[in-house]
């Protein structure tokens, strides 16, 4: 059971040949974030990530193709007073995504654009991008 005001999600990082990261903006929101979403009851983070990416982007992944980047917690971008706790995976292949389901817009952005951009979700900007930087 989730703690009050904590939204538990799973997400996937996709990169293109230029190193940009795929971000999405959901209908009725202003912030760009990683593709992914809330876990269903009894669903693993990896299974949720695969399901959400298929629903949102039309991209079919296999759980075995995901690599765990980490688990992060930050202020929720679109739900004031809530925290989002995300299990984030990376995927090494190339994708041609299509905005579907609740996705209003897709945006490929450099890590610098994300770090410097107020229109990116705090979790993506403050935790995921630093985790992707070489040590």
UniProtKB/TrEMBL annotation:
Hydrolase keyword on record: yes
Keywords: Hydrolase
Record's keyword annotation contains Hydrolase: yes
MF terms (GO), sorted A to Z: hydrolase activity
Cofactor(s) listed: Mg(2+)
Family: Belongs to the Nudix hydrolase family.
Stated name of the protein: NUDIX hydrolase
Organism of derivation: Nocardioides luteus
UniProt-listed PANTHER family: GDP-MANNOSE MANNOSYL HYDROLASE, MUTT_NUDIX FAMILY PROTEIN
Domain of life: Bacteria
Domain Nudix hydrolase: 4-133
PROSITE patterns found in the cross-reference section: NUDIX (PS51462), NUDIX_BOX (PS00893)
InterPro entries in the record: Nudix_hydrolase (IPR020476), NUDIX_hydrolase-like_dom_sf (IPR015797), NUDIX_hydrolase_CS (IPR020084), NUDIX_hydrolase_dom (IPR000086)
One Pfam entry name: NUDIX
């Amino acid at each position: 059971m989730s703690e009050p005001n904590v939204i538990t999600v799973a997400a996937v990082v996709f990169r293109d040949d230029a190193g940009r990261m795929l971000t999405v903006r959901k209908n009725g929101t202003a912030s760009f974030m990683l593709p992914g979403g809330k876990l269903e009851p009894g669903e693993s983070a990896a299974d949720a990530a695969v399901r959400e990416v298929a629903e949102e982007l039309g991209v079919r992944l296999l759980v075995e193709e995901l690599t765990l980047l980490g688990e992060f917690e930050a202020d929720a971008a679109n739900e004031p007073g809530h925290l989002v706790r995300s299990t984030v995976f990376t995927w090494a292949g190339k994708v041609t995504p299509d905005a579907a389901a609740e996705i209003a817009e897709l945006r490929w952005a450099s890590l610098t654009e994300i770090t410097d951009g107020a229109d990116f979700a705090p979790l993506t900007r403050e935790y995921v991008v630093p985790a992707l930087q070489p040590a």
